[in-house]
Structure formats: C-alpha cells, structure tokens
Specification:
single chain, 368 residues, Porin, 16-stranded antiparallel beta barrel, globular
C-alpha cells in the first residue's frame, strides 16, 4: 500500500503536469468522452402543392427541417459505437388534427468492428444499403429534398431498420465490396410486418474504379426482400452510377459529380384507396453537381416516378435547380427551385426552398 503522503505527492504532480501541458489534459479527457456533434437544418419553403397547415411536417413557411445529435467513439481496440438521434416535427395523420410538437428518434445506434481484416460487422439500428441515397442523412442530401422514389417506396426516412450487417472486401484489382444484411422488416411503405420473428435480407455490391488521377467511377447494385403485413414477399432492387471529377491541380475551385440511380419495388398485395393494384412501382433520378468557384455549386436534377408505368398509377416527373454557397465544411446555404407534374393533374406544382445547414462539434466525415 502506498503511503498517504506519497499518494498526495503523486496527485499534485499529475495535476501540475496537466495544467502546464494542455494537450495532455485534453487527451486524458478525450479518453473518457465520445466525439459529440450537432447539425440543424432550417428551411423556408413556398410551394403550390405543399400544405399551409403547420401540423403537417412538410408545410409552407419557416420551419426547423431537422436537427441531429451524434455521439461516436472507439469503445476499445475492437469496437466503435455510434449513436445518432434525430429531432423533427412529429408526423401525424390526418394533418388537420395533428401536432406542431417535435419528437426525438434514434436514427442510427450501432456497434461496429474496427480490427477484423477485410470485413466490417455492424449491429444495431442503421440505414441499410438499398442504393446510394438511402444511406445518406438528411443534411448530406445532394438536394434539399429526397428523390421521388425514396418517399414513394421506402418513406422519407428511408429503409432504416434494426439489423446485423457484414461488409466484405472482394479480392479484386479495384475496390469491390459486398454487404449482406439481415433486418427486421418494419418499414411502413415496403413491408409493414408486425411479426417479431420475421427477418428480411439485403445484398449490396459496390465497385469503385480510378479512371484517372482526376476521375473515379462508382457502380452499385442492391436488392432486398421480406414479408409484408399480408404475409406476401415484398422486394426492392436498384442500381446506382456515380462519376466524380476533381482535377489534381485547381481542384479546390472546380469539380463535377454526376449521379444516376434507379429504385424499383414489388409490394405484393398493395392497393390504392379504390382497390387498384399498385404493387409494382419504380423511379429514376439523375443529377449533375458542378463546382464553379471555391465556395459555389450549381446543380440540376431530373426525376421520373412510374418506371415502368403501372396501369393504375399517374406518372410523376420533376425537375430541380439548385445554387449552393458553402463557406466551409460546417455551414451551407442552398436555394432550390422544383417543377413537378403528375399525369392526373392539369397544372404543375412550383416550389422555392431556402435552406441553411449548420454543423458544430466533431462530426465524422461522410462515406465517399
């Protein structure tokens, strides 16, 4: 046992060391505290096809679109843990009798391995690998809103379920990764299964090639299946293609991204309010994102919902234009215009949106 005086001297020495060496003091605190960040999206929107009722989460006027609080840290040399909570207006139906209150939901809470060679295992609640866009958080969307197929097929929050995931690197001359996921099929748009014993399956293949020192090409395929509330097998499938160009010289001021993604689904047994079969539905989106100055981006997007066109579904087309000013990686201002036309409506809808995107704290980098 140490002598009491020796213990006091040791404590004084340690305190003095931490006082005169701030880096050591920060490191000692960091060992016990996770990285903490917060992101919030403010939105001003006015559209002819958007509700004027504030109890509807997607309404005209000024609103807090979403806030995210994220904690992440290495647990030890074997595991990493992430907990991300989303704050947004409560989605109630019907909107006329709804609420303007905000709720907190666990968007992603999972444990991930960090030391297994060639494989990453993840368990918890997470965004699944159904396409490229489904894996993005709201503040990382290329445009202010999600693509049409996202809302129609898997809902605004996407396919976000409790799951176990394994991502394995394929031995190939280029980057190739296959991800296999087993999950609870509770998504309200695609599955809506209430059976706790039901397990859905998803497979995603991602490939990435360096076409040159300045250009990369990414190609992905994904598919998923699971039982729905009618005890029928619902499926979804998609493909995505992304080209990124950033010159090795002057890349701070110029870059280009072109992305196209298709998502289709067969939600067996699903009918509309009139009893018409609307189980099969698919959508395509393509956009170009061009950086023409150090802090400025110009973007354009075209979308079609209804490919192939179902017999009892009105095809919807949408065109968007966006101008973004990004002072730093922690802030952004974006102005977007949308033109939307449905086959069963004579008039088009026009929407103008302005969004500010702010991040504070140690926010991890997004996937490439």
């Amino acid at each position: 046992m140490k002598h009491p005086i020796q213990g006091r001297l040791l404590a004084v020495a340690l305190s003095s060391f931490l006082f005169y060496f701030p880096a050591a003091r920060a490191a000692s605190g960091k060992a016990f505290n996770p990285d903490l960040s917060a992101n919030f999206l403010g939105l001003i929107r006015q559209g002819t096809g958007i509700s004027n009722n504030r109890s509807n989460p997607d309404h005209n006027g000024v609103r807090l679109q979403e806030a995210e609080i994220q904690l992440s840290s290495d647990v030890d040399v074997y595991f990493k843990a992430v907990a991300l909570f989303s704050v947004s207006q409560t989605d109630t139906t019907p909107a006329a009798n709804g609420s303007t209150e905000y709720g907190i939901d666990p968007e992603e809470v999972y444990l991930e391995t960090i030391s297994l060679p060639g494989v990453t295992i993840r368990a918890g609640k997470m965004k699944l690998g159904l396409g490229k866009h489904n894996q993005l958080h709201t503040h990382a969307y290329p445009f202010i809103d999600a693509p049409l197929f996202q809302s129609a097929l898997v809902g605004d929050e996407g396919l976000n379920e409790t799951a176990v995931s394994a991502a394995v690197l394929v031995p190939a001359p280029w980057f190739s990764e296959i991800t296999v996921q087993g999950f609870t099929p509770g998504n309200s748009e695609l599955y809506r299964s209430r059976e706790s014993g039901e397990i859905g399956a998803l497979v995603r293949l991602k490939n990435l090639w360096d076409l040159s020192d300045d250009t990369t090409l990414e190609f992905g395929l994904s598919g998923t299946r699971g039982k729905n509330s009618l005890e029928k097998t619902a499926t979804a499938y998609g493909g995505d293609l992304t080209v990124k160009w950033r010159p090795s010289e002057g890349g701070k001021y110029r870059s280009l991204i072109w992305n196209s993604e298709y998502l289709g689904a067969n939600r067996k047994g699903l009918t509309d309010g009139s009893g018409n079969d609307v189980a099969k539905l698919g959508g395509l989106t393509t956009y170009v994102q061009y950086q023409f100055a150090e802090r400025w981006w110009a973007q354009a997007r075209g979308e079609v919902l209804g490919l192939p066109k179902p017999t009892e579904f009105a095809r919807v087309t949408k065109q968007s234009a966006l101008l973004a000013f990004l002072p730093s990686e922690f802030s952004g201002l974006r102005l977007q215009y949308d033109h939307t036309k449905a086959d069963d409506r004579e008039k088009s809808d026009h929407t103008v949106s302005f969004q500010y995107n702010i991040t504070i704290g140690a926010h991890p980098a997004h996937a490439y």
